[in-house]
């Protein structure tokens, strides 16, 4: 085969017969053509005037064609002269004979002259064309420069008049999307960007910007510079469809969540950061959560765990079609769910959080060699050792709830946030509003540096100053549309953005497209997670997803108002000798079986030896735990006191933090001192409580 291929290859020079003539080939063609015509004409007795007539016609035709393409006069004259000289020599050669030394020498001289003249005119035409293009570019640049100078002068005057600040505009850059422009400002007198940011609303109004458009100042290349982004087209009003590109992503290179008003994609980096997403009802928060889940599904090094105590609605579209066998990959393989674990009940959420804590703590021990080899204290995340991202719908409300079960979840959520950053486990919490109760938790403020506020025009419970401290000029009225709001990350200051609109068919498409891309939990982590993780998709654990019957709680909610009221002391019925209902007896046996199979831990701080039947009366274990462990707000206070270091906190500061009276706070703090949870530093009116780590 190789020999045959070699034989088929052409040999010798390759000629391009479609190429045009150059100075040499053109002159050679003209002279040989004239010599051939002269020789033939002399041999056949052709009238010499015919050659002169043909040359004159050629000169006239090339002159007309050159005028149409706007050739220079030098070019027109050179080409016409070439035709006339060649025709004149042919006429002379037909008359006197072309085979004399005089005829041949003069023909060669004519050829050299034509070649030189053609080369000269070609160079002149190229230079002339380049100059024309350069002149056109200079004209465009002058026009753009004039427009930019006008924009710069307008904003220099406006900032001077409204802000009382003198600035110098170093550059004006128009956005490729055509929706606005940016000005590179240099404020005079040591003034920083935040002075201009205070007047964002006034500057926008004075510039007559449309609704939804702003003039926002942000830090420049150094502290003496500022960038003023001016939006001129309202891009928040219309829906922004989720991109059709479902290509692979990575938590290490950024995960896109939406677009800025200038058309740039907003990417978040969650390798070390947690995220907080707030939005009232109707603001598009659920759609944003689905967009976030879609982005996580596309990542090759992320496993997504979802806690949604509202019937698991946030995760069901990513799970049900796959578990029900409705979807198949192009090669007819089963489709894996778009998320790795879904919890809709308190019990399942506890299993998930316990598994996350177990995974993180075991990774700290099991991967010490890997950390040492990589010379880092952050676990190297990859498809082999994936990051776990917990999306907790309305998780901020769980942290502020006073319900006993919710407090138990909140404690574990805070442990995950506080302890597992280096081991690649982070959280995305959502909330209904940016209120003091949500943002009052020190752990949330410290760890959730990626923050999103979908406003939807709602002003109640949307304190943007608390959500984005230090960022001025943000107003709810700037983003009144569903799916629009503000996003701030450590890499970029808070500014307007639009969340992508993702529809149910896209959720199914992403689930199919990313089925083979989801990583598997590494063996070390899977072993630590135990049966709770391994059996998460068992039929018994997922039966609630397909069960359309009403739950007991839903039946109680729909029960008529005249139903039996009062305390439901079912735990005491057995003490009175009542016969338990068959359903309760079945549930009792089921719980016993679960306890025996999975070794469910008993309730802490209870008397294991005394059975419930021997303890009469109400079970006030919650009060007993409060006496033994302190009130529910005490862990938050302990974290706040630990964060203050050796300075400690006064009781008055603690009372202000938790919203309690000083007497109650002092009693709880003193009890904590008795339990060695705190140390009291007596210094008269300056007495403080200090964490034992800093005492």
- Overall CATH architecture of the largest domain: 3-Layer(aba) Sandwich
Helix content: 40-55%
User: How large is the radius of gyration?
Assistant: 41 Å
Which residues form runs of ≥5 with pLDDT under 50? 1-19, 560-581, 598-620
- Name the overall outline: elongated
Spatial arrangement of strands, main beta sheet: 6-5-14-13-12-7-11-10-8-9
- CATH topology name of the largest domain: Rossmann fold
Structural class label: alpha/beta
Overall pLDDT confidence? 79
Percent in strands: 5-15%
**CATH top level of the largest domain?**
Alpha Beta
CATH superfamily of the largest domain: P-loop containing nucleotide triphosphate hydrolases
Number of helices: 26
How many beta-strand runs?
16
Total domain modules: 4
Distance between the termini: 86 Å
The main β sheet shows up as: 10 strands, mixed
Question: Would you kindly provide a written description of the structure presented here, covering whatever features stand out?
Answer:
- The strands form three sheets. The chain has a ten-stranded mixed sheet.
- The chain is α/β, with parallel strands linked by helices.
- Residues 1-19, 560-581 and 598-620 have low confidence and may be disordered.
- α2 runs antiparallel to α5 (101-163) and α4 (73-96) runs antiparallel to α5 (101-163).
- The protein is 47% helix and 13% strand.
- The protein has 26 helices and 16 strands.
- The protein folds into four domains: 23-135, no CATH class; 165-231, no CATH class; 255-544, P-loop containing nucleotide triphosphate hydrolases (Rossmann fold, 3-Layer(aba) Sandwich); 626-694, Arc Repressor Mutant, subunit A, CATH 1.10.10.
């Amino acid at each position: 085969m190789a020999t045959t291929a070699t034989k088929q290859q052409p040999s010798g020079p390759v000629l391009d017969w479609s190429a045009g003539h150059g100075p040499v080939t053109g002159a050679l063609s003209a002279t040989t053509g004239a010599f051939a015509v002269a020789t033939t004409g002399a041999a056949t007795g052709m009238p010499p005037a015919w050659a002169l007539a043909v040359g004159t016609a050629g000169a006239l035709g090339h002159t007309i064609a050159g005028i149409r393409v706007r050739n220079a006069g030098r070019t027109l004259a050179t080409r016409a002269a070439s035709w006339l000289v060649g025709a004149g020599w042919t006429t002379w050669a037909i008359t006197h004979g072309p085979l004399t030394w005089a005829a041949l020498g003069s023909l060669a001289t004519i050829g050299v002259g034509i070649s030189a003249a053609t080369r000269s005119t070609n160079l002149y035409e190229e230079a002339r064309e380049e100059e024309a293009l350069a002149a056109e570019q200079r004209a465009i640049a002058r026009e753009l420069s004039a427009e930019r100078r006008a924009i710069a002068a307008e904003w220099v005057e406006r900032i001077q008049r409204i802000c009382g600040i003198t600035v110098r505009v170093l550059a004006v850059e128009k956005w490729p999307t055509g929706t606005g422009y940016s000005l590179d400002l240099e404020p005079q007198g040591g003034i920083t960007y935040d002075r201009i940011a205070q007047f964002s609303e006034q500057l926008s109004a004075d510039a007559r910007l449309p609704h939804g458009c702003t003039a926002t100042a942000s830090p420049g290349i150094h502290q003496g510079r500022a960038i003023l982004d001016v939006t001129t087209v309202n891009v928040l009003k219309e829906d922004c469809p989720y991109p059709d590109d479902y290509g692979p992503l990575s938590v290490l290179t950024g995960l896109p969540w939406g677009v800025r008003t200038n058309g740039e994609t907003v990417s978040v980096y969650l390798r070390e950061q947690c995220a907080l997403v707030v939005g009232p009802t109707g603001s598009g928060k659920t759609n944003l959560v689905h967009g976030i889940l879609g982005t996580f599904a596309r990542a090759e090094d992320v496993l997504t765990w979802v806690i949604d105590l509202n019937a698991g609605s946030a995760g069901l579209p990513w799970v049900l079609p796959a578990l029900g066998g409705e979807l198949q990959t192009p090669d007819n393989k089963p489709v894996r769910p778009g998320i790795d674990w879904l919890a809709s009940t308190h019990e399942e959420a506890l299993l998930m959080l316990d598994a996350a804590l177990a995974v993180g703590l075991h990774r700290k021990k099991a991967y010490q060699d890997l950390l040492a080899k990589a010379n880092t204290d952050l676990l190297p995340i990859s498809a082999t050792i994936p990051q776990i991202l917990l999306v907790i719908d309305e998780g901020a409300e769980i942290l502020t709830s006073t319900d006993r079960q919710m407090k138990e979840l909140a404690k574990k959520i805070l442990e995950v946030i506080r302890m597992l950053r280096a081991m690649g486990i982070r959280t995305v919490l959502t909330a209904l509003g940016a209120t003091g109760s949500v943002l009052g938790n020190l752990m949330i403020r410290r760890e959730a540096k990626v923050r999103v506020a979908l406003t939807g025009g709602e002003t109640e419970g949307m304190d943007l100053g608390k959500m984005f401290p230090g960022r001025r000029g943000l107003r709810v009225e700037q983003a009144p549309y569903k799916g629009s709001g503000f996003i701030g990350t450590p890499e970029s200051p808070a500014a307007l953005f639009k969340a992508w609109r993702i529809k149910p068919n896209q959720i199914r498409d992403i689930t199919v497209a990313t089925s083979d891309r989801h990583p598997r939990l590494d063996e070390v982590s899977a072993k630590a997670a135990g049966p709770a993780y391994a059996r998460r998709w068992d039929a018994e654990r997922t039966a609630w997803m397909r069960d359309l019957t009403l739950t007991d709680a839903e039946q109680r909610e729909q029960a008529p108002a005249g139903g039996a009221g009062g305390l439901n002391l079912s735990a005491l019925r057995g003490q009175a000798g009542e016969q338990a209902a068959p359903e309760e007896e079945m549930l009792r046996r089921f719980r016993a079986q679960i306890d025996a199979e999975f070794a469910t831990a008993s309730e802490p701080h209870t008397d294991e030896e005394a059975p419930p039947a021997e303890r009469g009366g109400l079970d006030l274990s919650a009060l007993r735990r409060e006496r033994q462990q302190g009130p529910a707000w005490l862990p938050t206070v302990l974290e706040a006191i630990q964060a203050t270091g050796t300075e400690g906190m006064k009781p008055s500061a603690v009372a202000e933090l938790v919203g309690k009276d000083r007497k109650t706070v002092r009693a709880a703090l003193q009890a904590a001192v008795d339990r060695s949870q705190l140390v009291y530093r007596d210094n008269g009116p300056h007495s403080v409580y200090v964490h034992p780590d800093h005492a």
